[in-house]
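input
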Amino acid sequence: MNRQDEKWFIKMQRIQTIDKMLVERFPARTVLAVSILNLIIGLGSFSIQLFSIIKQTPFFYLAFGIWFAAFAIFTETLSFVLIFKRSCILFIMTIIFHLFTILVAIGLIIINLIALIVANSNSENEFLWIGYYQLFFGILFISFSLILLTSFKIQLKQYFRIISNK
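output
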């Protein structure tokens, strides 16, 4: 066996070890519960944003709720797939997309805080509830995603320990 074949063999063994770990120690119930809740949050944000566009509330043209909902729905779809098909690459993709969607949720929170400030300064109190709901959805999504990522923490530590062994 030459040196390159040996490196490939070691790499494949590491990936198989991670896949086995995902099958044996994966927090499927936590992932399922958080994914369902985050999916509901994404759909709620989408529907409120549609209402905001129809009523042309402050900052409706940014449609940030739709962007957030699209990322949330895609991320949670990845999580659902991860529950049924546990693989190393899908695990890493799910974590990366959760982190990215958390950034989008932070953007949703910032945009809606600005919209609330503008609405309060212009005495446009009729649609303040939209901004509050979007804030609530963003904060809930971040909270639930952090719970999910915390449950992944053990797997991540083991993953990096396996990868770092040379």
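quick obs: The chain has one domain: 9-164.
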